[in-house]
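FORM 7B: Structural annotation worksheet

SECTION A. Query
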Amino acid sequence: MSYILDTLNNLVHQTAFFNLTWGNYLMIAVACFFLYLAIAKEFEPLLLLPIAFGMLLVNIYPDIIAAPKPDGTAGGLLYYFYVLDEYAILPSLIFMGVGAMTDFGPLIANPKSFLLGAAAQFGIFAAYFGAIALGFNDKAAAAISIIGGADGPTSIFLAGKLGQTNLLGPIAVAAYSYMSLVPIIQPPIMKALTTEKERKIKMAQLRPVSKLEKILFPIIVTIVVCLILPTTAPLIGMLMLGNLFKESGVVRQLTETASNALMYIVVILLGTSVGATTSAEAFLNVSTLKIVALGLIAFAFGTAAGVLFGKIMCIATHGKVNPLIGSAGVSAVPMAARVSQKVGAEADPTNFLLMHAMGPNVAGVIGTAVAAGTFMAIFGVF
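SECTION B. Predicted structure
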């Protein structure tokens, strides 16, 4: 009888109930809320669902992301996924998939979109100086600031390159959370900064883009950007390689793989490993609250800067540019462009802004990668 009681007692004490803190329970509740947003509200479910589930797992069983021990004991399953984040492998592969899925035609047809994409990066630099003011060191501030571009992969990439892996969890979760909340955060800002008349502006149809232009574009961008900022090669290079797969028309199998099977595999690995960095011990602290607040401020500033620059372009072109497309200058592809379309259609159901907004949206992806490369160059990181 004593043996049975001891065995049962050991089994009971092996359950998670005896090891969890109040912080773990709070993070489990947050994970369930994210799962609700992903499943019920369909807020960026491909990313938010695996992130939320990784968050759930690590707060029930912290050793799932434990590092290998000196005695040779293997690490937890998600530790090995996380290493791929830390070495910038998964973010770079995500960019290749994005490139294979995205039509750069609207940006090629309207090169002025680059200016709108650049304007939306204002949020990044606003967040950088804000983070410095809140006491973060310069490298941590740079890693945090990329949240303002609403670009999860680039946020992870830069945090790893700058050695800010202790902040990678909060940074990544904030970036992906704001990416998923684009339809909620952006419209009030867009409407507050534009008049109904401006929102009703119809833009002229974009010119046709030839196949040659679409093939040359990723090659030229890679050469120009990577010569100026070689540190952007992992992101810009993979983005443009994926797009070249798509536009060349001669490697359909590679295009299919990069934009479907490989992309979804990488999303699973990246999402669950990012979620697993959010243990209660690492996540529930003042620094995390600062990062979340800075991310929101940066994202709002980036959206506002894009819209305001869109208004300037509207004036300069005598009403030919709808300022709403400026909000798509953040990197959330293609959701930010869809939000521009949605807000414009609310003002005039016959207004079609989606393709016009895709230009700044794609420019924003390139701009955020360039901003990350600029920070790496400033700090001498390769």
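SECTION C. Observations
The mean pLDDT is 90. The two ends are 64 Å apart (CA to CA).

SECTION D. Sign-off
Analyst initials: ____
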